[in-house]
Fold this sequence. Notes:
Helix content is 45%, strand content 0%. The chain is mainly α. The mean pLDDT is 79.
Amino acid sequence: MGKGYGVSGYTHTQKQLDDYANQHNPNNHAYWDNLDNHANQCNPNNYAYWSSRYCDEEDDDD
């Protein structure tokens, strides 16, 4: 993709265009799922935070 201004029908399939549109539309579940996933990965009290890291920082205390 270019400079972050969206996607182009010249370089992406229709499915890719639809997925992009869904993830940037607040009336779509994919938009909110993406935000929830991001929030979970930023929260150290959530399993997704630890599973999104390469090393298991939770076991370092042992």
